[in-house]
Write a structure and sequence with these properties.
alpha+beta; DNA Binding (I), subunit A; four-stranded mixed sheet; elongated
Length: 193
């Protein structure tokens, strides 16, 4: 008979607790037009509340207490004054390329752990290719070695989707990383099913 290890139960509970703490440590900041602007810490959200710069739209169940008062942690806040939002630019990085491609090799279509992935130049640098959003795709080590410095047509390895710069609400997803969005945010990040 297999007896569950009590340490595993403690670790599972600890990881679950840590997940909820990290999710609830973030607050979605909206412009007056309800478009997502940024993700801020709960401390920044509380500061903006006390300065009367935001209104609270949604709250988490968790309560923050001080010596004299207590209030629920804000999940979504909206600015009271409009802030001009220039087109958000996603920084080009290896991690952001992997996030854009969902950790899936664009040649074989398999999902991998980041340690088994590389960034591949579609048009090789040796042939004048640039390092940027439109010329880089996620590739597993095997496919990258197989393609080498050849064009995709030469080795019949065409990427599954055309690479491009992420924009719009995708910036928010990249900022959050791989963690799932809290339910309170889905209506405002345009992701409700």
């Amino acid at each position: 008979m297999c007896v569950p290890c009590p340490l595993l139960a403690i670790l599972d509970n600890h990881q679950e607790k840590r997940y909820f703490q990290t999710v609830m440590d973030r607050t979605l900041l909206l412009n007056t037009t309800f478009e997502p602007l940024a993700v801020v810490s709960w401390q920044k959200a509380i500061t903006l509340m006390f300065l009367n710069k935001v209104e609270v739209i949604r709250e988490y169940d968790r309560e923050i207490r001080s010596v004299s008062t207590g209030f629920r942690l804000p999940a979504v806040i909206r600015l009271l004054r409009f802030v001009g939002n220039k087109q958000l630019q996603v920084r080009f990085s290896r991690r952001n390329v992997f996030l854009r491609d969902h950790y899936i090799c664009q040649y074989c279509g398999q999902q991998f752990d980041p340690k088994y992935l590389t960034c591949d130049h579609i048009m090789p640098k040796s042939r004048g290719g640039i390092t940027g959003w439109t010329n880089i795709v996620t590739s597993c080590i095997y496919c990258n070695l197989k393609k080498a410095d050849k064009l995709p047509e030469e080795v019949e390895m065409v990427p599954r989707k055309k690479p491009g710069r992420p924009s719009g609400s995708y910036v928010l997803m990249l900022h959050l990383g791989a963690a799932p969005l809290p339910d309170h945010w889905k209506d405002y990040a345009f992701l409700r099913d």
